[in-house]
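Hey team,

Filing this mostly as a record. A colleague (T.K.) asked me to run one chain through the structure pipeline before their review meeting, and I want the input and output archived in the tracker in case anyone asks later how it was produced. No errors, nothing strange. Just documentation.

Input sequence:
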Amino acid sequence: MATVSISGVVACHRCPVRYFLERGTERTESERYTVAKQISYALGKPLDPKALWREVLAVSPGIDPAMETECTAWVDACGQREWRTAAEHDVPVSSEELGIRGTIDRIFDEEPYFAIVRSSGAPEAGIYASDRIRIACFVVCMEETLGIRPNGGVVEYVPSGAARLCIPQPRDRRAALRALAAAHRIENGDVPRKPRNAPCERCHLEETCSGGARRLSDLL
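Output structure:
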């Protein structure tokens, strides 16, 4: 069985047509993620915005200079709370049973054992549904790969300086399994139809999609 990335599972949860259309395309890392990711390596230690911006420039020399202001603001937000220092960063994990894979941003020696880094601001309350699915997938992968069964994980919304514990519920696991099944069907040759609740107004493929992916036979 071919493996699907956890980000692919989340994409398929949002819209299977978008997942279908973006398969095989190389995705460029967003500038927001570049900044958030670099800040995450320093969490748990004194945060120096100037030093972190120099690191960002070393990683992405062509980044928009205006992002320095964002970097400084995010560092200030993160400086308002205490952070745990990670034991390891960027640990690849997978589940052979489910056929999924991903990389955990930060791993700790005590519960909660892991955190994922997000470049979006935190919601007013709780955790985004897509991030709950990410956590549910990583819990399974962490057990299979590292022999640790965490109760949940932390979502670190770096721009907001927020860290929120997520303990997956049955609804999160069901949503993850449905999205994973859809992704596997697509990988096996299925062409998805656009769901009724597709987030078209927020999708950069809205014009390209024009009603959903279609089989060649549908056009003849």
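Quick notes for T.K.: Residues 215-220 have pLDDT under 50 and may be disordered. The domain at 4-209 is CATH 3.90.320.10 (Lambda Exonuclease; Chain A).
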